[in-house]
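Comment thread on ticket #2218

A.B. wrote:
> Attaching the input chain for the structure job we discussed in standup.
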Amino acid sequence: MSIKTEEKTRFGNWVSMKFIIIPGIPGLVFLILGVVAWPWFLLAGVFLITAGYFLLARRRFSPGGGNLQEKVLHRLIAEIRWSGEGCVLDIGCGSGALVIRLAEKYPAAGITGIDFWGKGWNYSKGLCEENARVAGVDGRVTFVHGSASSLPLNDGSFDLVVSNMVFHEVKDVKDKSVCLTEALRVLKPGGIFVLQDLFLLKPYFGTPEAQIERMRSLGASEVEMIRTCDEPFVPTFLKLPFMLGTVAILRGRK
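C.D. wrote:
> Ran it. Output below, let me know if you need it in another format.
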């Protein structure tokens, strides 16, 4: 993608401003109160350190501060072993970043992005379509509304199914592994899946061994898990469970 296109596409930031504002405002209030009674300084420190952490994290994810968001995305793309002929589904396409990257890499493929576009994110179908237009791939991609837990798509419709950092955010089911079942359902026999998420976060997904066994029980083969969290581009301070410390790729074939 050209520099000109990069300047115009808007893919957002995984670290929402609310994570900075919510602790930041009370932190400043407690700081002021600390002038009257010093114990307030202790609370101010906790809230301001939290806000500062997320501010630094947001900076590192942004293009100008480390571009970690793009690096994580490209880590997924690097694990795709596919001819480029057929149909692709990106589950939880967000702002359309992965859809656009795949459209550029696989010009012969038909690519669909699906997302619920909930209120918690500044993403929308319109934003996806605008980013695709700016990138020059709008004629080869489609965006539809739907939840990863119950995809409004027919069985065996896609040759490649991908997803990037989405399943843990699905709100309408407690068992996030339901999303894995849906991903395999819409994949054609012989098709490939490459999914990246907080798969090492046991409360959400169980153990890696259990996930691999589940995929095999659903008819998948050549299943393997690759630890993105161990990549050298992941800074130590971001290796917390809900940041990049539990990120891994689940890859295989149906």
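A.B. wrote:
> Thanks. Noting for the ticket: The longest strand covers residues 187-197.
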